[in-house]
Design brief:
With 435 residues, this protein is α+β, with helices and mostly antiparallel strands. The protein has helices spanning 41-51, 57-72, 95-98, 121-128, 151-156, 196-233, 239-259, 264-279, 290-293, 301-308, 310-315, 324-335, 370-385, 396-405, 413-420, 423-432; strands at 4-9, 74-83, 86-94, 113-115, 132-134, 163-169, 175-185, 191-192, 356-360. It has two domains: 4-20 and 218-432, Hypothetical protein af1432, CATH 1.10.3210; 41-217, Beta-Lactamase (2-Layer Sandwich). Helix content is 45%, strand content 13%. It is elongated.
Length: 435
């Protein structure tokens, strides 16, 4: 029984009044500790099948690159995604340089892009739609339009030699991006050239990967459309804000889950789910009056009470108890304004799907689901660190000071320590999803 302080009358449930949410498949897992695929057609097929179990776009891109590298024994690689007529760095992996490092390497180069033309190696492959194999990028002898840019090697002291670059083309010939594999290795770990068989395997794998990426991108687009729908009502909600909050939440969850001894498979499955839940945390604002939303923070007590209902409206969109996606999205939407010290809202509720909801005392400490505690930190950080219509961006040092000052009050102190311990990751995400 919920100790009641007041009852909220939301009226009868009518799904026609609320936007539909695209439903996603259940949690899937893929372990980086799985044995490497065999270097034959069966190995390619198993690698393709593993991709079809992944729904989250970022997780999928990471695994596409990892699986492709394993198929051809490449030391490093990059995925470029096509957007706005250019190729954008989406994921970078390098066993020599990044082995054992923090996840910030996957965000490092994402702000850079290349034109789709025949001047760069990746641009050439995107323009020609044909794979490119180079035995030594520093010894390209033929008279060609493309050239190798040694800037990364110079900065990192890495030695790029062999390259296999293939286009990511869907079955209907749509260009998704480019997969670049670097430095094939032999059984001794020495750098060798990519073989004709490597090219066949990579090309076959790339087509299936492109189809999987396109499906995941459509699902991500549905989420972003929901965020944009909220943005039509609330000028402070944007797609880039949602992407940053989702990425911050994923990395903070990863740190927390690893420290609590969760399995690799469980962490991977929940990473996919928490990103989507974080991106949709404020979707309930679509049910709040424009007048209230556009006033910003200058609300009277009655308006503030109505604004707080966005947590319940958002949670009510996710009804399925048999879907881990719905369950986490519901708990994040409902609880992301609860506070560690018990001064948040909406508080304990009896049945959010009833026409009248009994609301009790605020939740506190570990009564608040960890997913919501994570998203709250990510959301507040981004709101303070970015420019809004009503304020300038705070300096990062001031944002950190605010988080520290409210550790144990507004925020879970353990999560604050973890969040503040990964400034490079946070900065890289901020740059990747900048306005």
């Amino acid at each position: 029984m919920v100790p009641a302080s007041h009852v909220v009358d939301l009226g009868p449930i009518d799904d026609s009044d609320l936007p539909l949410i695209e439903r996603f498949g259940g949690p899937q897992s893929f372990s980086v500790n799985d044995p490497p695929p065999t270097r034959d057609a069966e190995g390619v097929l198993k690698s393709i099948q593993s991709l079809n179990r992944i729904r989250d776009l970022d997780t999928l891109l990471e695994q596409v690159l990892l699986q492709a590298r394993r198929l051809v024994r490449a030391d490093a690689g990059t995925i470029y995604m096509k957007a706005k007529g250019r190729l954008f760095f989406s994921y970078v992996q390098n066993d020599t340089l990044f082995a054992g490092q923090t996840p910030d390497s996957r965000y490092v180069y994402s702000a850079n892009s290349l034109p789709i033309d025949r001047s760069s190696l990746a641009g050439y492959v995107a323009a020609s739609r044909e794979p490119l194999v180079i035995d030594d990028v520093y010894d390209i002898k033929s008279d060609v339009s493309y050239s190798f840019n040694p800037e990364f090697d110079t900065k990192s002291r890495y030695r790029t030699k062999s390259m296999l670059i293939v286009p990511l083309l869907t079955r209907d010939d749509g260009m998704v991006g480019v997969l670049q594999l670097i430095n094939a290795t032999d059984d001794s770990g020495d750098t060798v050239t990519f073989s004709y068989t490597d090219t066949l395997f990579a090309t076959q794998f790339a087509q299936a990967a492109a189809d999987a990426v396109e499906r995941a991108r459509l699902s991500r687009d549905m989420v972003l459309r929901m965020v944009e729908l909220s943005g039509l009502r609330d000028p402070y909600e944007t797609g880039q804000h949602a992407k940053r909050v989702g990425a911050y939440s994923v990395e903070l969850y990863d740190k927390w889950a690893t420290g609590h001894g969760l399995s690799v498979d469980e962490i991977r499955a929940n990473r996919e789910i928490i990103r989507t839940a974080a991106m949709l945390h404020d979707v309930g604002k679509v049910a709040i009056s424009d007048t209230i939303l556009r006033k910003g923070k200058n609300l009277n007590p009655e308006e503030r009470k109505r604004m707080q209902l966005h947590t319940i409206y958002g949670a009510r969109l996710f009804k399925r108890d048999d879907s881990p996606w719905d369950m986490m999205a519901r708990e994040v939407a409902l609880n992301h304004h609860e506070r560690w010290d018990g001064t948040g809202y909406p508080g304990h509720t009896d049945n959010i799907f009833g026409s009248k909801i009994r609301v009790g005392r605020p939740k506190k400490a570990e009564e608040i689901p960890v997913s919501a505690r994570i998203v709250q930190i990510a959301d507040v950080y981004d709101a303070l660190a970015t420019k809004r219509a009503y304020k300038e961006a705070w300096p990062v040092t001031d944002v950190h000071a605010y988080l520290r000052a409210n550790s144990g009050r507004r925020f879970d102190p353990q999560l604050i320590d973890l969040f503040l311990a990964m400034p490079d990751v946070i900065d890289s995400i901020s740059k990747k999803y900048s306005y």
